[in-house]
Design brief:
2 strands, mainly alpha, globular, 2 domains, Diphtheria Toxin Repressor, domain 2, Arc Repressor Mutant, subunit A, single chain
């Protein structure tokens, strides 16, 4: 399923938060992204309808298998690109910002070539 850049950012955020905390709530997403609760609620509803997340009775948000696959792919791109830019002498702040911009538009072919060039396997 093709998803928008905004949806990819939400999925990546849920993934990152789930690595840090056992439970993810909408308020956590709001704080992390700096978005209002109504905005986050609308996107979460759309992601539920598209089968990317589930929300249980306690309002804990979980990635579905499809949502997790997208999130981990975006996160891998983000971390590898950030590390690459830092190794090239780019400041961490700029590297993080630029990686976030590029990770969504980079083709899989180019990303795989970057991974081969820097000697990273599929486990980054």
């Amino acid at each position: 399923m093709a998803v928008s850049e905004a949806t990819e950012n939400y999925l990546e955020t849920i993934y990152i938060l789930s690595l840090e905390h056992s439970e993810v709530h909408a308020v956590d997403i709001c704080s992390y992204l700096g978005y209002s609760r109504p905005t986050v609620s609308i996107v979460l509803r759309q992601m539920r309808e598209n089968g990317l997340v589930t929300v249980n009775d306690e309002n804990h948000i979980y990635l579905t298998d499809e949502g997790r696959a997208i999130a981990t792919a975006i996160y891998e791109r983000h971390t590898l690109l950030t590390d690459l830019f830092i190794s090239m002498g780019v400041s961490k702040e700029t590297a993080l910002r630029d990686a976030c911009k590029i990770e969504h538009d980079l083709s899989d072919e180019t990303f795989q070539a970057i991974k081969r060039t820097v000697g990273v396997g599929d486990k980054h």
